[in-house]
């Protein structure tokens, strides 16, 4: 007995031992995560990593410190305050280490980014100390007190996991574990009112727990009622504030429910296989097109997967990225909730660009992990969806994979299959590589074999070979895939992009870019220009961001700024436009270079330097990289060669002061040259954007009959004519338009797209719309 007491007394004489241990662990952890560049600069990721560490350390350190210092009935407030001071000092040291690494890495917004450490780990330390103090006071045995804190931390984790599993959310505001903003592809992360309210909740709960711990200690010491009443009052006030903030969680954006989403969207329609949730202010025609799009994709992708009578799915369409971010956490990223058989997407004019991909995730959910609905191999989950797309941006998926291999950018599949490997490299490489690989597996084995690996993650069991053997054969087959020269030009840009984990100042750049576009959309072009200038500088001169700055300078009439930057980008990124033999990895971003050339051409046209404008537009057209710029260049070249069209087309295309009179300028040009096919094409396109589908189709057919100045314009006129017939619900005419009169030099992807439109027309003809849309 005496020996035990002596041992406990000795332990209490060394309360700083856990502080030293956790301090050493914290510094080691910080140095390790600083070796990963994204986690080694001040900002959200580094602060969140520290938050997770202190969520563990704060409670366990506090329990150990209080038990060693004074047992369960000593001076609890002082013990808690010393624990907090020690943990705060540890946070300061760790933040200093991260700050030093950040300076070495060249962090952007260095001082401002340090504020994340006050927003995320600091409230976690306060709550962890409070919960640890309560555990130390309430439970006599030290190991049981530690176990109680562990249970508290696991409960906080389970609470968020259950919410993400049960509800359509991708974010998590956790009082102890911090903040998870949603998909990694949404690069803008900011300190919001919702985040601050969540951290305030943590502090309120901490105050209540500390009061409860102090009350218990004072009851044991038989202190007066006055002090207990004082603590009880503080606890009641703290809990009241906590309850109030929690109750308004949906209004603040820290929590969500399907009821709230349905209320905000307002529209719901039950189709044959798709339950559509949509903004109630949509027109009847747009709602019809949305439902047709979703039902067609359901039928099409069910056939692709070999499914018979799959259960219905839900499709949520949001008005914009801001609404979607507030309601479920994913802003620009489209999201499939496999566990609940639903998709969440920003509304687009049908056909939706990502619906074909996302619905495969939902339909294949029964193949995946039970209760979650996706494969244990992330690459297979995404690869199946990409393979189902068949083509992307005018070329089949296998061609993209072959182009990636030819320029030496095809990743190793076995190293790129999990979450860490898949997201470490750029999405363009991960998605298209796995899409090409899974498409090859389907063609050379079967969908059933893919289904087996989707479920088990066991390559040997599904295919009889391991992934390395399969990949070796696939890579060999890719060598036989012919890759067009135009695709190679695009690939050199697309597959040299960096992922979030490889980019400089990714979060700062993402946030400022979002702010810049918001300012631009509101007409504050000078503010947008300043922000784009910062993003361009912070990114180290990323040419993709430079083109945004060109646009901002152009719209603000700062032509010197636009001209100088465009010239710089052409010089640094456009070498391959003049030297096709340049090494692939050194030729620069040709797509951005062509955009800069087009900007130079517009400015030359504004100055009425017609010779220079012709030269630059001719170079844009010869580059043959950007479809929309190909069409602009073709029409501009025709107008520049016709003195009667030059003035109205200049005002229509490039004069910012005349943008509001676009219809007038176009009609003026048509009066002068009614036989010009390109002008009828442009009018048809404007009518299409105004949802005047019948009139648009007539103009586009007229344009094709009169003749186009360039195949690029002819291709688009032909495609748009069929689309307008479809949207006018003239499905037979649309199918005929896509079937007949096809231009002779369509890309493989354009042929596949036309065939799919014919399939879509036949589906729409036979599909019975709900009564609400008839």
Task: Describe it.
The protein is mostly helical and 774 residues long. The chain is globular and about 100 Å long. A 5-stranded mixed sheet has the order 3-4-5-7-6.
Biggest β-sheet, characterized? Answer: 5 strands, mixed
Distance between the termini: 87 Å
Strands, count: 9
The largest beta-sheet arranges its strands as: 3-4-5-7-6
**What class, by secondary structure content?**
mainly alpha
What oligomeric state do the depicted chains represent? single chain
Radius of gyration: 31 Å
Fill in the keyword field for this structure:
single chain, 774 residues, mainly alpha, five-stranded mixed sheet, two-stranded antiparallel ribbon, 38 helices, 9 strands, 68% helix, globular
Write the layout of secondary structure elements.
Blueprint: H1 2-12, H2 17-34, H3 44-70, H4 76-105, H5 110-113, H6 115-119, H7 121-138, H8 142-166, E1 172-174, E2 178-180, H9 193-220, H10 225-247, H11 249-252, H12 258-265, E3 266-270, E4 274-279, H13 284-305, E5 313-318, H14 321-328, E6 335-337, E7 342-346, H15 355-363, H16 378-389, E8 391-392, E9 395-396, H17 397-406, H18 419-424, H19 427-444, H20 447-456, H21 459-463, H22 467-478, H23 485-494, H24 506-521, H25 525-538, H26 543-555, H27 559-573, H28 575-578, H29 590-606, H30 610-623, H31 627-640, H32 643-653, H33 662-672, H34 677-689, H35 693-706, H36 711-727, H37 731-739, H38 748-766
Parallel strand pairs: 4-5, 5-7
Antiparallel strand pairs: 1-2, 3-4, 6-7, 8-9
């Amino acid at each position: 007995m005496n020996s035990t007491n002596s041992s406990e007394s000795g332990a209490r004489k060394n309360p700083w031992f856990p502080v030293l241990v956790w301090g050493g662990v914290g510094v080691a952890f910080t140095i390790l995560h600083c070796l990963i560049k994204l986690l080694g600069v001040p900002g959200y990721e580094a602060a969140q990593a520290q938050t997770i560490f202190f969520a563990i350390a704060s409670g366990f350190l506090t329990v150990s410190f209080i038990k060693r210092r004074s047992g369960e009935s000593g001076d609890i407030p002082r013990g808690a305050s010393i624990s907090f001071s020690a943990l705060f000092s540890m946070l300061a040291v760790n933040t200093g280490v991260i700050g030093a690494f950040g300076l070495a890495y060249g962090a952007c917004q260095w001082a401002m980014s340090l504020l994340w450490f006050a927003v995320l780990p600091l409230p976690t330390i306060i709550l962890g100390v409070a919960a640890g103090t309560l555990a130390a006071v309430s439970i006599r045995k030290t190991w049981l007190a530690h176990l109680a804190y562990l249970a508290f931390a696991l409960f906080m984790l389970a609470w968020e996991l259950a919410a993400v599993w049960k509800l359509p959310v991708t974010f998590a505001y956790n009082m102890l574990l911090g903040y998870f903003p949603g998909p990694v592809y949404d690069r803008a992360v900011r300190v919001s009112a919702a985040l601050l309210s969540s951290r305030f909740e943590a502090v309120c709960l901490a105050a209540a727990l500390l009061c409860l711990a102090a009350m218990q200690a004072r009851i044991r010491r038989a202190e007066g009622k006055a002090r207990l009443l004082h603590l009880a009052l503080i606890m009641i006030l703290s809990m009241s504030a906590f309850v109030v903030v929690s109750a308004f969680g949906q209004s603040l954006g820290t929590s969500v429910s399907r009821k709230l989403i349905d209320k905000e969207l307002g529209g719901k329609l039950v189709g044959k296989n798709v339950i559509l949730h949509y903004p109630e202010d949509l027109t009847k025609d747009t709602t019809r097109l949305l439902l047709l799009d979703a039902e067609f994709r359901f039928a099409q992708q069910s056939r692709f997967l070999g499914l018979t009578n799959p259960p219905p799915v839900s499709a949520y369409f949001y008005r914009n990225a801001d609404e979607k971010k507030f309601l479920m956490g994913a802003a620009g990223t489209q999201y499939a909730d496999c566990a609940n058989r639903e998709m969440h997407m920003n509304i687009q004019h049908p056909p939706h660009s990502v619906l074909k991909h996302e619905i495969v995730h939902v339909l294949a959910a029964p193949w995946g992990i039970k209760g979650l609905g996706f494969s244990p191999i992330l690459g297979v989950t995404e690869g199946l969806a990409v393979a189902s797309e068949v083509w992307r941006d005018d070329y089949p998926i296998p061609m993209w994979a072959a182009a990636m291999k030819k320029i030496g950018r095809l990743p190793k599949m076995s190293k790129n299959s999990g979450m860490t490997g898949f997201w470490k490299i750029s999405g363009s490489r991960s998605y298209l590589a796995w899409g090409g690989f899974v498409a090859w597996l389907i063609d050379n084995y079967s969908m059933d074999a893919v289904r087996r690996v989707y479920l088990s993650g066991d390559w040997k069991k599904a295919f009889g070979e391991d992934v390395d053997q399969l990949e070796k054969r696939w890579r060999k087959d890719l060598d036989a895939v012919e890759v067009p020269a135009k695709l190679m030009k695009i690939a050199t840009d697309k597959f040299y992009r960096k992922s979030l984990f490889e980019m400089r100042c990714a979060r700062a750049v993402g946030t400022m870019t979002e702010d810049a576009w918001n300012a631009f959309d509101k007409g504050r072009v000078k503010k947008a220009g300043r922000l784009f200038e910062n993003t361009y500088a912070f990114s180290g001169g990323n040419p993709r961001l430079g083109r945004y700055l060109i646009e901002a300078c152009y719209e603000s009439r700062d032509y010197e700024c636009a001209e100088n930057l465009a010239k710089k980008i052409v010089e640094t990124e456009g070498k391959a436009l003049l030297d096709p033999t340049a090494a692939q990895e050194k030729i620069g971003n040709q797509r951005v270079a062509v955009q800069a050339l087009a900007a130079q051409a517009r400015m030359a046209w504004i100055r009425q330097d017609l010779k220079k404008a012709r030269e630059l537009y001719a170079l844009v057209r010869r580059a043959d990289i950007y479809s929309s710029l190909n069409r602009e260049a073709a029409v501009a070249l025709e107008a520049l060669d016709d003195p009667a069209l030059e003035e109205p087309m200049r005002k229509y295309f490039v004069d910012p002061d005349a943008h509001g009179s676009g219809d007038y300028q176009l009609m003026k040009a048509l009066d002068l040259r009614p036989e010009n096919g390109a002008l009828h094409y442009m009018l048809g396109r404007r009518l299409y954007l105004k949802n005047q589908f019948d009139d648009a189709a007539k103009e586009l057919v007229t344009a094709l009959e009169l003749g186009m100045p360039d195949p690029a314009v002819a291709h688009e006129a032909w495609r748009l004519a069929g689309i307008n017939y479809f949207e006018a619900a003239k499905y037979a005419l649309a199918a005929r338009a896509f079937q007949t009169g096809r231009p002779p030099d369509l890309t493989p992807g354009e042929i596949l797209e036309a065939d799919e439109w014919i399939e879509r027309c036949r589906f729409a003809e036979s599909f019975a719309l709900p009564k609400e849309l008839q």
